[in-house]
Amino acid sequence: MAELGANARFWIAAEDGERAFGPGPAELLVHIQELGSIRQAACAMQMSYTKALRILEGSETALGVSLVTRNAGGADGGGAELTPQGADLALRYKAWEEASKKAAEEAYQAAFAGLLAPRLGCCILASGRGVRFGGQKLLAPLGDGTVLGKTLAQVPEDLFRIVVVTAADEVAEAAAAAGAEVVAPEGPLQSDSVRAGVRALGECAGILFCPGDQPFVSEASLRRMAEAFFAHPVSPVRLAWKGEGRSPAIFPKRLFSALEGLSGDAGGGALLKARPDEAAATIPVEAAAEEELFDIDTAEDLDRAEEMLREEQEGER
Fold first, then answer.
1. Least CB-packed of 1, 12, 56, 289 within 10 Å?
2. Dihedral angle at the C-alpha atoms of 265, 268, 270, 272, nearest 10 degrees?
């Protein structure tokens, strides 16, 4: 099966849909600029001279500007050159077309992730040293599993390709046993883990960054985050409580290079804090309960998590 993708063409059009300028007229202007002749430009596009004239005249009328200066006479139908407005329009159209095609492909990859395009990425951040916890917290028992196991179990694999980033061999073994891909960061800092995740999942339209010690995040919330990203494929999406964005978060492909450029013990949250425009464009997805944002840093947090789990189980009876 051939690889699928967006195949979009872009026109400048009036409110009623009448086309004024698009791929055909733009290509014609490029050939006129290169060849200095409307007739030769028409031949290069395998169209008649009269059709080329009709296209030019139609665009000039619709746009209200002169695009080409024509010199009548001669066997080749006279010479021609672009007016300053025509040359400027050709350059601007090319830039707009390229940007639009890129945006359309990104939107396609997001909208059809897991169906006609690669799934979204999910980077489980699991390289914390557990200093405050006093040991490897991710493998600490929680209910009938572990902290990391419960986090992994909530990620819908039909929507996300899961990569666990960890420097700990025992965590890597547990993640692999659970069916996740595993990569090691090049250093101990959070930025190293983020960079490793981006490099492993760089072909995805977006990457969900989720701490491995957030076991109460729900599959339903992650699905709603994916749905929000499908609708807004160039915007970050964050799980939130009462409007305040927290972790996990989905970052679009256009921010991957910025994430790779992070340094120190900083992650995606630091990027959004440093760039107010991106923070303002972030889509919040409200969690079903505040507990979804709870993470485990200390032994006391684990005790609280066990209590929360018991309360949750009792509420289901």
1. 1
2. 170
Residues 114-123: tens digit of each pLDDT: 787 778 999 9
Residue 247 three-state SS: strand
Query: Which amino acid would we find at residue 15?
Result: E
The amino acid at 121 = G
Spatial separation of the C-alpha atoms in residues 226 and 283, rounded to whole Å: 11
Query: How far is residue 176's CA from residue 168's CA, in Å, rounded to a whole number?
Result: 12
pLDDT greater than 80 at residue 1: no
Place 128 in a pLDDT band, splitting at 50, 70 and 90.
confident
How many Å apart are CA 82 and CA 244, to the nearest integer?
54
Is the pTM higher than 0.85? no
Q: Are residues 163 and 209 in contact, defined by beta-carbon separation less than 8 angstroms?
A: no
How is residue 126 written in tokens?
């699991």
Task: Answer whether 165's CB lies under 8 Å from 125's CB.
Answer: yes
How does residue 2 score in pLDDT terms, banded at 50, 70 and 90? low
Which SS3 state, helix, strand or coil, does residue 232 take? coil
- pLDDT above 90 covers a percentage of the chain that reads 81
Return the bridge partners of 19, or none.
13
User: For residue 118, what pLDDT is reported?
Assistant: 77
Q: What is the DSSP letter of 201?
A: S
Dist CA 84 CA 114 (whole Å): 47
3-class SS at 34?
helix
Summarize the confidence of residues 275-291 as an average pLDDT. Answer: 95
pLDDT of residue 73: 61
- Give all strands (DSSP E) within 84-236, no chain letters: 120-125, 141-142, 145-146, 160-165, 181-183, 206-211
- Mean of pLDDT values over 142-165: 95
pLDDT at 153: 96
Domains of the chain listed by start with CATH number: 14-101 (1.10.10.10), 120-316 (3.90.550.10)
Distance of CA 19 to the CA centre of its chain: 30
Partners of residue 161 on adjacent β-strands: 121
